[in-house]
Amino acid sequence: MTATWTNWSGSVECRPAQQLEPASEEEVADAVRSAARENRTVRVWGSGHSFVPLCASDDVLVSLDRVAGIESVDAEQGEATILAGSKLHDLGEPLARHGLALENQGDVDVQSLAGAVSTGTHGTGRALGSLSTQVVALRMITGNGTLLEVTPADDDLLAASRVSLGALGVLTAIRLRLVPAYRLHERVWQEPIDTCLSRLDERIAATRHYEFFWYPRTGLAHGKALEPTDAAPDDMRGVEGERIDHSYNVFPTVRENRFNEMEYALPADEGPECFAAIRELMRTRHADVTWPVEYRTVAADGIDLSPACGRPTVAISIHQAAQLEHRAFFADAEPIFLAHGGRPHWGKMHSLRAPDLARLYPRWDHFCRVRDRLDPGGTFLNKHLRGLFVNRG
Ligand SMILES: Cc1cc2nc3c(=O)[nH]c(=O)nc-3n(C[C@H](O)[C@H](O)[C@H](O)COP(=O)(O)OP(=O)(O)OC[C@H]3O[C@@H](n4cnc5c(N)ncnc54)[C@H](O)[C@@H]3O)c2cc1C
After folding, report:
1. Residue 141: which residues within 8 A CB-CB, separation 6 or more?
2. Atom of ligand 1 nearest to the CA of 120
């Protein structure tokens, strides 16, 4: 047995028999081949920022920290091939040197590229899809240890592999569609939640990236709006609640306090009513929870396991401090999300299993067929993933 592995929030712990840090695609393939031969399970972890046991392994646990860096850039095409273990915070400056940037980012940038892509990690913006929608090609080591290149022409495989929870193979390189480097003008403000809700549609429509956090104890919404700008950082120096900087410096925040989280992706029209129901739940049954509720938007896509598959989406997240009990609150909130047509964020807490998920995802069977083909022996299935993909009902 090697050392205990724990995720960021402390909600998942495992003691893998073997922890590996391959330094190349070939070494990844060797590790998968020998595990498959011995009927051992392989799980990969990136930064361990998922709240559910996606990465947990009693057998082999692999880190791709040494398979990191930018492999190649095609500035003219606006694309870069990036090794899968790269951390998002290591991409901003090198891409900017080529005049390129990620189109959108989430709240933090500590995730690995492969981890973020594999769970459909997203930021906010009505017209902007998750990071997975930016994937145009990739390489992975499949269940029998062979290298598979998924090219831009492989629509079928791309639809399955852009969000795959590490259940199809170990991603080793990801080619991303990028945009010309840009600066963002950030505005943050506070206002009563009812004022925020009365202007919600208008702000979502008018802003490239709009989101709010509602703090139940104060009743205030903390709004954030980001717009691309040609203005210089100095133009906003000293202005309260505003700043201008490179996009990759503006998107991420630093999360010093650990928490657990549940997030559901809803059809966009359901967002306001679902938020109202969660607000009522927190007023009546969980008034002790002081952590905020986050409200974001994501564009529709056609990725098999993307929570935004086939529909413009509102993502609502609830939180509780990592050291406090979250189960009763999340268990009460989940039926509300489901009643509004919600699909869970793959990296965040939920209780759904194969039969429930199959009903929520129009392309579920397609993903499962690809999974059976690329990993027929179940090398990548731990207990959590078996619950998601086996016994489909
Ligand atoms: C503080 C915090 C902030 C967050 N903010 C956001 C946000 O703004 N938006 C959002 O959508 N989510 C957010 N999340 C969720 C987070 O982005 C996802 O859980 C993401 O998967 C974490 O990336 P990771 O590198 O830590 O992946 P891990 O949790 O380590 O792994 C996630 C999944 O990816 C798989 N994986 C990792 N590497 C590989 C590989 N090389 N090949 C194949 N599979 C692989 C793992 O097996 C696992 O299934 C946040 C989480 C935290 C803790």
Report:
1. 25, 28, 29, 32, 147, 148, 169, 170, 172
2. 11
